[in-house]
Specification:
The protein is built from 8 helices and 9 strands. By secondary structure, it is of the alpha/beta class. It has one domain: 2-enoyl-CoA Hydratase, Chain A, domain 1, CATH 3.90.226.10. Strand 5, helix 3 and strand 6 form a beta-alpha-beta unit.
Length: 234
């Protein structure tokens, strides 16, 4: 990991929450679902909002979010995405630490923070949403993530057409998902840094201590800022 912990902040300035369940959101059986999820494997969005609010109330300036999930409900993912964005708009900093398999709507949540630290084990699996509203959900996901990554928009749109082999709309020979490991996540401008949880915690502590008053200049953040500036000048 390239971000040093220049200073350490008091523990009270860094809040931590965990989003590590197979399904994020409240699972509701649907006729078109091909699987069932045990309640113990779900994480309702209401629980996540309560956890974020609790960290804000205790005065945390940096929120470290541990993420590992197969995905979940699209509406729930956007609720969580908006809540994390609101934490940042209120003056806080959100650091997402992703490890292991993160698929579907979990990739949207991964991009909600100011920084994304990918564990060396992290994999991001991007594919189409499912259900009768899939087309509109895919459009909304594309509009949300395209400005936050360096993957060309057309490529993102293609990834969001990938479906299971047994799903309606499958194109023979097409992959089920687009997969990014940690190194590819850096190259595509999804992740800012690669590191362990301990390194992510140290990085969050440095941010809370004010070690980087103008933000830590990761290649991703610099490239996105440059692209934004170019578009503003057009």
């Amino acid at each position: 990991m390239t971000a040093p912990a220049m200073h350490s902040a008091p523990d009270s300035l860094v809040g931590e929450i965990e989003l590590r369940r197979p399904y994020i959101g409240r699972f509701v059986p649907r006729p078109w679902r091909k699987y069932q999820i045990a309640e113990a494997d779900t994480l309702p969005e209401s629980s996540v909002l309560t956890a974020i609010a609790a960290q804000r109330a205790r005065g945390a300036g940096v929120l470290l979010v541990g993420l590992e999930s197969d995905g979940g409900d699209v509406a729930a993912a956007f609720v969580i995405y908006d809540a994390l964005q609101a934490f940042s708009r209120a003056g806080g900093i959100v650091v997402i630490y992703a490890r292991g398999w993160n698929a579907s709507t979990a990739t949207l949540i991964a991009l909600a923070g100011d920084y994304l630290v990918a564990d060396v084990s992290a994999e991001f699996a991007i594919h189409s949403m499912i259900g009768p509203d899939a087309q509109e959900d895919n459009r909304r996901v594309l509009e949300t993530i395209a400005p936050r990554v360096l993957t060309p928009r057309a490529e993102l749109a293609k990834w969001l057409t990938y479906v299971r082999h047994d799903s309606p709309g499958y194109i023979p020979g097409q992959p089920n998902v687009a997969k990014l490991d940690a190194a590819l996540a850096i190259n595509h401008g999804w992740a800012d840094l690669i590191g362990t949880r301990e390194e992510a915690q140290a990085f969050a502590s440095s941010l809370a201590a004010g070690s980087f008053p103008n933000g830590f200049p990761t290649p991703r953040r610099q490239a996105l800022a440059e692209r934004s500036a170019r578009h503003a000048g057009e």
